[in-house]
């Protein structure tokens, strides 16, 4: 049997994380993150088609702002040199931007709205 104690309710509630965001902001951020996940997935699929899934797994941290290993160490793991790795990461980021722009372009009615929608997307992800 699980005991239920009402007297601890206020204490338990006080430990819950506080969220001062409106439901609209929460929705906007989740939508933006879903779109960014879709872009990553499309990019991943391109690497799969070229037989380079493991390579993608090792370098995708450079897109996600996650801590990774130093480029010199990563280059050794991928059996390349650091300069080639940096070029590859530059191309990865460029392709990411291209796919993101294409995804956003599919969502807006007017192609002239792509840049403003991208700015909105960035603000939705950045604000908490």
Brief digest:
The chain is mainly alpha-helical and 128 residues long. Helix content is 71%, strand content 0%.
Structural class: mainly alpha
Largest sheet: none
Number of domains: 1
Number of strands: 0
- The gross shape turns out to be globular
Which stretches are poorly predicted, pLDDT < 50 over at least 5 residues? none
State mean pLDDT (0 to 100 scale): 86
| Topology pattern, helix = H, strand = E | HHHHHHH
The percentage of residues in β strands lies in under 5%
Oligomeric nature of the chains: single chain
Provide a count of the helices: 7
> What value does the Rg take, in angstroms?
21 Å
Could you please describe the fold and organization of this structure?
There is one protein chain. With 128 residues, the chain is mostly helical. The chain has one domain (21-126). It is built from seven helices and no strands. It has helices at 9-15, 23-49, 53-59, 61-64, 71-77, 82-107, 114-126. The longest helix is centred in the first third of the chain and has 27 residues, at 23-49. It starts with 8 loop residues before the first helix and ends with a helix.
List keywords for this structure.
128 residues, mainly alpha
List the SSEs and their pairings.
Elements lengths: L8 H7 L7 H27 L3 H7 L1 H4 L6 H7 L4 H26 L6 H13 L2
Helix pairs in contact: 2-3, 2-6, 2-7, 5-6
